[in-house]
Amino acid sequence: MLTDSTHTELFIEEKRSTGRKLVAVVCALTVTAIVFAGYTYLRKRSAQQRLAAIAAQAPPTSDIPKGPAKAHILVDDALLRGGQTIIGGTVRNISAEKLSGLTVALELRRRKDGSLEQTSATVEPHDLEPDQEGRYVLKLPAQQYISVRLVGLKGEADSAQLAYTTASGQKRPPERIEPKVVTVPRSGSRGGEFLNSPENPARVP
Question: Which of 32, 100, 139, 146 could bridge 111 with an S-S bond, Cβ 3.0-4.6 Å?
Answer without folding.
Answer: 146
